[in-house]
Amino acid sequence: MPFPEDLPSGAILDSIADGVFTVDLDWNITSFNQAASRITGVPADEAIGQKCWEVFHSSLCDGDCALRACVRESGTISNRSIFIVRPDGEKVPISISAAPLHDEAGNVIGGVETFRDLTDIHLLRKQMEESYSFEDIVGKSKALSRTFRILPQIARSEATVLLLGESGTGKELFARALHNLSARKDGPFVAVNCGALPDTLLESELFGYKAGAFTDAKRDKAGRFQTASGGTIFLDEIGDMPQNLQVKLLRVLQERTFEPLGSETSVSADVRVIAATNRDLQTLVTEGTFRQDLFYRLNVAQMKLPPLRERREDIPLLIAHFVRKLNAMQGKSISGVSEDALSVLMRHAFPGNVRELENILEFAFILCPSGFIHVEHLPEHLQPTPGSARAAAAPHDAPLTLEQIKCRAVSRALARNAGKRMKTCRELDISKDTLRRILARCKEMGEI
């Protein structure tokens, strides 16, 4: 819709809460509204006439300029997260949308960019992250909340604990939390992966041996149970423990004693046992590969750890947690994950759970030099493919069918309005029924 010539465009732009500025083809700023001055800290009369990068010093000004891409390719970009640097050195996180400007003949004459200050959102997010951390375990989901409630009580008891959960759900992290909150917190925490060692080596690792017990046993060696005395031993992948060792572990749990290999003298075991597995122990009991009496001895206090796909609301918190951790480890200053990349991660199934998310971010840290992690920094299997819903976020796809154009227009309008359908209807000047029909059609086409 053409903008009426008799309306005061300057007053209208100054009434907008978001920053708005325009540039010509030489990247000189030609307009700068009041919100832009407030957010950047640069008065309009100083900004106008300067190159845009001299005012913003953004994380994209080093070469990946969103506005330049829009002008060059006549496309649009929406809701991209970056940060700018004010004259006083303060970094301000913002979300930008950009588009080219055309004259009446359709020639590109410059570009326009709108940007929103995300400082308050980032502060709120930081406060929430601090509120939802528990002994290095991050989450606020209902699936985790019950576990958080009972974890301190279980920790304070001396009960044997069985942690159940898929690979990558953080079983060792929970085991460490149980140890740290227990009366044994000043004692050692010893972790053993029962599935990673051969049967013969696992027995000597767990229970130790006496000199001469076997050919290479030149001297006595303490086992992990002895090393963990006064503390906690964490037996991961307990479902993979061979049956001959299951008997020996059962005796430790029942009588609190064991004999090292080659010894006839019992050793006292002052150890709390926490076991974990990603296998169905009851099925293994039915199949006869896991002792039923040992299962009941281990299953005194059971905790089920939910997979990440059942607590998607924790993904943004986990991302912020891992970004902070990787920044500290690698000496970088990555600001976070952009909205488009977050959207991709929120839709991912995460078969590898939290560990997979951490690995994805570690990969992104390799490709992302600074600023926000974008979709192009994610691993190949998370990149948009032609025709997928993810491709809808791409700014320059052609040719498109009319239905696809509708889907993308609706999708972007919903994003601009934070998913609020009534606001989206008013923006697009369509009814609720029309929006519902378009969304249903887009869903059938796989466009959203």
UniProtKB/TrEMBL annotation:
Record-annotated PAC domain positions: 78-130
Keyword terms of this UniProt record: ATP-binding, DNA-binding, Nucleotide-binding, Transcription, Transcription regulation
GO MF: ATP binding; DNA binding
Domain Sigma-54 factor interaction: 137-366
Highest taxon, organism lineage: Bacteria
InterPro entries per the UniProt record, alphabetical: AAA+_ATPase, AAA_lid_NorR, Homeodomain-like_sf, P-loop_NTPase, PAS, PAS-assoc_C, PAS-like_dom_sf, Sigma_54_int
Gene3D superfamilies according to UniProt: 1.10.8.60, Homeodomain-like, P-loop containing nucleotide triphosphate hydrolases, PAS domain
Keyword Transmembrane helix applies: no
Ranges of residues in domain PAS: 12-57
Glycoprotein listed as a keyword: no
CDD domains: AAA (cd00009), PAS (cd00130)
GO biological process: regulation of DNA-templated transcription
SMART domains found in the cross-reference section: AAA (SM00382), PAS (SM00091)
Coiled-coil ranges from the UniProt annotation: none
Protein name: PAS domain S-box-containing protein
Species per Swiss-Prot/TrEMBL record: Desulfobaculum xiamenense
Source taxonomy: Bacteria, Pseudomonadati, Thermodesulfobacteriota, Desulfovibrionia, Desulfovibrionales
